[in-house]
Amino acid sequence: MKKQFAITVMAATILSGCNSGSESQDTSFEASDYNVVVAVRQAGYSGGAIDVYAVEDGQVVSEEKSLNASGSDIVVRAHNDEFFVVGRYNMDNLTRYYSGATSVPLSQLSLRRDENQSSPNVYDLAFVEDNDALLIPYGVAEVSRVDPTAATQSDLFKEVIDLTNYTLGSDGTPEAVDAIVVGDKAYVLLQQQNNWTVEFNSTLVTIDLQTNLIVGDALDLGVRNAQNLTLSADASYLLVAGQDSTLYGEDPKTYNGGIAKVDLNQNTVSLLIDDGDITSHPYGYIRSVEVMSNELGYFLGAAGYEDDTLYRFDPRDGTVLGSVPGFESKAIKSITSDGNGLLWIALAGEDNTITAITTDGTVHVKPIKTSLVPIGVAIVSN
Question: What are the tens digits of pLDDT across the range 37-47?
Fold first, then answer.
């Protein structure tokens, strides 16, 4: 296990005079146990930035805040000792940082393939290798294969994979939201909304990374408004969180969601956890899932907007093991497994903190107060 890490938090606010290097110096973090990149935003959605923390033995040993001022619709992804800030709708940029020197980015490139393209609204960045990744756009019917380490715009895009034939609605895009790379295949999650309404089951397509071709037909996941993918500990199956109804408007609400299980060996789909129906829905809307081991996973159930409860479950058979004390009826913005037995939790509202728990629910990293509302976590190593 590597022993030098840092924690990075992404904050959605535009501070007066703040830019990538306006309030900070190059940073060499103290030796620490974790590199975690966390997305946060201002409560009023008026902008974005990043905070940087180094943590050792569950304690912050150094920090740097309010870097990379941007809009609020942002996401952070990490790979090795670098992290990448994705500016989503109408920002459409990818900013690359080395985690040991965060005041000046290594590069910032446009995510539009040409100046006439509408906003791709990239939702995710899935790594294949160090210089090879997939851009997962919500706003256009394609997946782009890119070199995330490119120094110039001309070197960023390498291949475009068309998703037009996998679009169910009339809005021209299948709304790709997430992807996971397993060996020489990439599994891309398609939400399949239709002009912002939930009408179709979400689907999954498989890309052969050797040929950049989609293999077979899209899988009907049996759940709607899918939010994320997670891979089992033994890499034999995927789990998909299907939220169905949005948490705003839409009356009456419907419950056509839950957790779908995709067997990668058999290429089949089953419903692992049902979200219930209009009469009985014990977990509310299931909007995120993470697998920690062959025997344990976590999912978020939402009773409404910012009314979330964290649940433990057995991914082998879908048995729900109960809620996690201290994380019931909270404004939980995200949950993220670090791959090493910790679940990182981003809490909004009066909390505005990030924390990490072990597989038995014990708090391993004490709550860290973020500069603004935390909305996502990624892990970085030095």
Answer: 888 899 999 99
